Amino acid sequence: MTIFEFGRHKVPFADIHDINVVYKYHDNEIYVDLELNGGAQLSLNLPDSLTFMEQFIRKIREEKNA
Fold first, then answer.
1. Residues near 35 by beta carbon (within 8 Å), at least 6 away in sequence
2. 4 within 8 A of 13, measured Cβ to Cβ
3. What is the 3-state secondary structure (H, E, C) of the chain?
4. What is the pLDDT, as a whole number, of residue 29?
5. CB 53 within 8 A of CB 44
6. Tell me: the pLDDT tens digits for 7-62?
C-alpha cells in the first residue's frame, strides 16, 4: 500500500476519495485539498501540496509504467 507522508502525518492513498487541485500559475503556487473516505477533508499548505503532487505523480508512473 502506498502511503502519502507529510509532516508527522501518514495517509494511505487508498483512503483518498477525491483530490481537488487549485493552482495559481503566475504565482507559481499549487494547493491540494484531499477528501478522505468517511468524509474528512484535508487542505494542504504549499509545501505539503508539492510533496503530495510529487508522490502522486511517482505513484502514477509506477502503476502505469510511464
1. 16, 17, 18, 19, 20, 41
2. yes
3. CCEEEECCEEEEHHHEEEEEEEEEHHHCEEEEEEEECCCCEEECCHHHHHHHHHHHHHHHHHHHCC
4. 96
5. no
6. 777 888 889 999 999 999 999 999 999 999 988 898 999 999 998 899 889 888 98
Count of other CB atoms within 10 angstroms of residue 4: 20
Which residues 6+ apart lie within 8 Å of 17 measured at CB? 35, 36, 37
Cα–Cα distance for residue pair 49/1, rounded to 1 Å: 20
Beta bridge partners of 16: 36
| Cell numbers that stand for 28 in this block | 507559481
The three cell numbers locating residue 4: 502519502
